[in-house]
Amino acid sequence: MASSDLQGLYQELIMDHSRAPHGYGLRPAVAAQSHQLNPTCGDEITLQVHAAPDGTIEAIAWEGHGCAISQASASLFAELVEGLPVADVEHRIEVFREAMRSRGKIEPDPELLGDAAALGGVSKYVARVKCAMLAWVAAEDALRKLA
Asked: pLDDT of 123-143, one tens digit each?
């Protein structure tokens, strides 16, 4: 597949997730929650982490508003981590952060990040990295509150 075809597929995936987000809608029972704001552009998110008794992530629930990248990133994150142990989620957050900070030098690992690897191209645009990271930072904060 040509690079431009792949880029088009990734753009479509991001638009699909921003239009029909996975995990959208907060729940009344809150295990751990974090609200994050990107002061640069005004994107914001409130994200809840719901853990099962065995320590796996039962669900990610979130609400927010902002650009397609921030909304798709939250949806992709929610889809990726449900059913994973907390330690695995924390590892994926760190791997995603490294890729986002790389300015395009590190390709996100689709084996580890699933469809969220489609956000890899965002790392080339410093102003957009915070948009892509918003939900991941909120999750990281909420996971600290679970402990």
From this structure: 999 889 999 999 999 999 999
